[in-house]
Amino acid sequence: MTHLLTVLGTSNYSVARYTWQEQQVETRFVAEALCKLFQVDRVTVLLTKEAREKNWDAFQQQLGDRVQAKDIPSGRTESEIWQIFDAVVDVVVPGEQVIFDITSAFRSIPILVLLA
């Protein structure tokens, strides 16, 4: 099983073209392109309250039923950093192939995810 772990931010995402080998996908969200280019089975998106308010509805509409949201804090304190770490540990299943998308990640979140 291939699991995409991605981070949704608060940016105004524009449509972009993503290319892998001979395939191309045009979309606002890199996670959608990764799903199409790499046959992803499930998606977990880490998102803050602000990202949920701004971009979650459109993101979920594009990715459909295979996407699961995992709320995280902004990571401004040591306690919040550990909460993010624990959130990642909670969603990754041992033995699955994980694709980690850091394209829209904020601050130290990519490092935390890699350590988890």
How does this structure look, described?
With 116 residues, this protein is of the alpha/beta class. The protein is globular and about 45 Å long. The chain has a single domain, classed as SSO1389-like (Rossmann fold). Helix 3 packs across helix 4. It has four helices and six strands. A hairpin with a 2-residue loop joins strand 2 (16-20) and strand 3 (23-27). The longest helix is centred in the middle third of the chain and has 15 residues, at 49-63. The two termini are 19 Å apart.
Topology summary:
Layout (H helix, E strand, L loop, with lengths): L1 E7 L7 E5 L2 E5 L2 H9 L3 E6 L1 H15 L3 E5 L6 H14 L5 E4 L8 H7 L1
Parallel strand pairs: 1-4, 1-6, 4-5
Antiparallel strand pairs: 2-3
Q: TL;DR?
A:
With 116 residues, this protein is α/β, with parallel strands linked by helices.
Q: Which properties best describe this structure?
A:
116 residues; alpha/beta; Rossmann fold; 4-stranded parallel beta sheet; two-stranded antiparallel sheet; 4 helices; 39% helix; globular
